[in-house]
Design a protein that fits this description.
Blueprint: H1 4-11, H2 25-33, H3 46-57, E1 75-79, H4 89-93, E2 99-100, E3 108-109, E4 129-133, H5 140-143, H6 146-165, H7 170-193
Antiparallel strand pairs: 1-4, 2-3
Helix pairs in contact: 1-2, 1-3
């Protein structure tokens, strides 16, 4: 028999958006299984997701907690490549490696791999990323399917393995990265004025 946390994780949307207050869907599933988190903290799963979690856990279905966000359409990130400065900050936070690019080179998004997590938005120093709805009026599980969740989960797990095996270069990059971002911001501001 599959452990309760695994059963819960299997029905989460796997957007890895952290809106639930946990670092990923698996951590949220574990917290629910241990009775350390309510079942109504997943905006991408929406009301249907809460109902599914209610059936698995035997807990009553509650409205989505507004502190965690609102249920909405499925979105994907779109980068305005003319404004992208190639800072790579979005690459570092994308949970499914859906963003391609390198230092000082414009970035782009692999739409089929983007979970719409929004994690790239706050780190972009030039606000060149926009979340675009792609599911019409459909929200929650009506917009997101178990197949998409499984694909996102595989990409997230592959990224986690890659990060474990990737040499840690963060400490060496910080001073030069900060200087590069400051210079790029100054350049972007100068472009806006002209």
């Amino acid at each position: 028999m599959i452990a309760l946390a695994d059963r819960i994780n299997d029905v989460l949307p796997q957007t890895q958006c952290t809106r639930c207050g946990f670092p990923d869907c698996k951590a949220y599933a574990q917290a629910i299984a241990l009775d350390n988190a309510p079942i109504n903290q997943c905006p991408p799963g929406g009301l249907v997701g809460i109902d599914v979690l209610s059936k698995i856990t035997g807990r009553p279905a509650l409205p989505l907690n507004p502190d965690n966000g609102t249920e909405g359409p499925m979105t994907v990130a779109v980068i305005d490549e003319a404004w992208c400065i190639g800072c790579t900050l979005c690459l570092k936070v994308c949970p499914t490696d859906a963003i391609l690019g390198s230092n000082k080179v414009m970035h782009t998004v692999i739409e089929a791999a983007c979970t719409g997590c929004d994690l790239c938005l706050p780190v972009c120093p030039v606000d060149c990323i926009e979340m675009v709805p792609i599911s019409d009026e459909r929200t929650g599980w009506s917009a997101w399917s178990p197949e998409l969740a499984q694909q996102a989960r595989k990409r997230y797990e592959a990224r986690q393995l890659r990060l474990i095996h990737e040499p840690a270069q963060e400490d060496k990059e910080v001073p030069s990265k900060q200087a590069m971002i400051a210079a790029a911001l100054a350049k972007a501001k100068a472009r806006q004025k002209s």
